[in-house]
Structure formats: structure tokens, C-alpha cells
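User: Second chain of the day. Same drill as before.
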Amino acid sequence: MNNASLNIEEAKAFLAANPTVQWIDVFVLDMNGHPRGKRLRRDDLLGVAKGGMMLPASVFIMDPRGNCIAETGRLWTTGDPDYNFRILSGTLKPIPVDGTRFAQAVIVPEKDDPLDPRHVLRKQVERFKVAGHTPVAAVELEYYVTMPGPDGAFTLETPPGVSRDMDIPLTFQFEDLDALKGFNDDIYRISETQGLPVDALTQESGPSQFEINLKHSADVVQAALDGLLLKRAVKAAARAHGLNATFMAKPHHEWAGSGMHIHMSLLDKGGANIFAGDPISPLFRHALGGLRETMGDFMAIWAQSANAYRRYVPESYVSMAPHWGFNNRTVALRIPDQMGPGTRVEHRVAGADANPYLVIAAMLAGIAHGIANKTDPGPDVKGNSEELDAPPLPNVWADALKQFERASVVRDAFGADFQNVYTRLKDTERTNFERVVTSLDHLWYALVA
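Assistant: Same format as last time:
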């Protein structure tokens, strides 16, 4: 779990090795997982490496549009003070498109802030470290690639050569991969340059929808950051090819949603997988019980936007109840058919737009809760979990936020300050979103009212 700052020698070595880089994007990841920061000139890098750079504390309380939300209580009432941020060592990397004129680096606050999602996850990892356990995680991300409009705006138009016929199943085929081979090559070139442990690329079921897997890591803080940086790599490659890439959870009501699946296991001090058993260990059962019991409490993390709740529809491989099962894609908590050292849970609830820092932190909170309380997960599901009666997850945003706000497991794991501010941030976003009159209002109601 690296938290060291970039030093002068590392900065000088980067500049010497990358003479074409003229601009460096330095950014922190806010509560939404969105990058917020500044673009530095090449000549300014050494000064920032030496002394850091200032950003307002309100960088953590921005909505997706970049508005600082006063309702959080962390804006006017605090005076919106500046924090000093340092470049995180190992994150200063070139972006090898457009002549490699650009680079990027992640910054973190010099002093811990309870609203920093990275800090929230680090606290959970320390909690497991005290118990002698090391979490292992891998992130899978789904996304769509489309053609931008004349002004660069998002559209649903698929790129040339890519199928849009929903009657032709393309999952696990290669037609769209071939049509976008230059774009895909650049994703992997950027990822490899930046040290992102990318694995397989899959054509998914939506038109021009894909999934990229990242490899398992015993540093889950880095695994979460890798997921966030992979999004930037995909978007950078898209821009280089005149495309848009979106990780929104449900870009069209008739298209498959895009999810973020997290694979997770636990190692003991000797590096053995303590989820392994016959077929799984009692401790793993307790972990599953905790994940099931707390899943609804963290729904506001799995689905952090208005659009994310549109993804929860029947028969879409998106679970709407906290079931678990072996090698069963209809459940929220799937145990892949790889036992022994490969024993793990695949958490299938979060949307692709969620913040991996918070998703992994919430999973760890649920696992810790289950282990501490020896929670029984109940029987595993065989067959279609949607045919079973079960308490549903809160799939209305307002309900999810209320449950998040009241949940003791959230308060204990994330802290009362984070719980309160995140709830206010997202509830304000929800209110602002829901008061907007859309073209659908006109289409459905204008002439019949």
C-alpha cells in the first residue's frame, strides 16, 4: 500500500526519460471517483515534487458536474480551506498517444482527510492487517464505445463497422473487437506504459460494449486505483481515435448495463488463501454472510448515480437481492469454479460508474462484519435466483441513501463524518436531478394533461 510522495530524483528521471512530454495532469480522485486537479507545464514539475501543490478541501465534495455542494456542511461553514497535496510516487506516467505530449500523476492530501475515498479504503486494509489478513482483489469493468456528436457530445451512435442489431448475439465474439482494433491496441499500450495489470478484453452483449479485466493484486488500494486509471486509459484511447467511451451504468434502456465486478479473497500471514476449504472455509461462509447482511446498507456505494439505478432490471445478470451461489451468474455473490488457492467471491452488484475505492472498502466492511459476528449466509442458490423470494436491495436512490445514512456498519467502517457528508452530497445530487424536466415529460404528458 504505497503512500510515499514523488521525490526530486524520481521527477528528474521522468523528465529525462520523456523529453516529448510538455503537460502533466495531476489529480486527486473525489468521492465519485472523478479526477480533479490541474494541468502542469513540464517546467513546473520539480517545484511540485519539492513542495506539493494546493487545492481546496472542497475537491472531495463535488458532484459529477463539478459543483461544490454546500449542503454537505464542508463549504462555506469551513471557509473552504486549501490542502497541500503531494504527487503519489509511482503514478507519474506518460500517456503514449498524441505524440506523448501528455503525462499524468495522482496526488493525495499531505494530511489524511476522512472524506478522501483512498483514506477510507486504507483504513479498512489496516483493519485486516491487524487481524493478520491480506485482502486480494481484481477489478472488472464494462463500458460502451460510441461516436461523438458534432460538438463532441455523447451520442448512442456506434462506430463504423460495429453492429447495432440487438437480434444478433455478439457476446464473446470478435467482430466489434476487429472493427476497433486500433483503439483497443492503444488501450493496452497506454495501460502497459502506466503499469496497469490489464488482462483479457471481451466483447459484451450490448452494441459496442466491452469488458476489460485487471489481474488480482494483494494491494487492494492499488487495485482500486488501477481500476480508476484504467477508465482514464480507455477514455484517452477513445479521444485519440475520435470516439467516446462511457462507463455509465445504463446508457440505453434496451441495452445491457455496464457493471463493475470485484473478485476478492483473503490471505493469511503465510500467503495461504483462507477462503479455501471443502469446498469453502467456515471463515469464508461468515464473510459471505456479512456481505449479504450489509449489501443493502452499501447500496448507495454500488449505485452512486441516478442512472445507476436503471441498471437493476430482471433477467439482465444484475442481482436485485443479496443471494450467493457456486458458479451461478444470477446471484450477487458468485463463487467462481476455481477452488483451492483460487477460491474467491465475485461481487456483481456495483455499476461501472461506481468508485472502486469505496466499492472495495464497502466489501471489506461487510466481510469484517460477517467474520466478527460469525454470520451465517444461509443456503447457496442453485438455478435462477430471481425465482426466489428474498428481501430486495433498495433499488430506489432515495431509499438507498436513507439506509446508508442510518446503517451502523457504514458509520463504524467509513466514519460518521464520511457517512453524513456522502449522504448529503448524493441526496442533493438526487434532488437536483429529479427536478429537471426532460423531453420524456413532454412526450408522455404535454398533450394529455
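The first strand starts at residue 23 and ends at 29.

User: Great, on to the next one.
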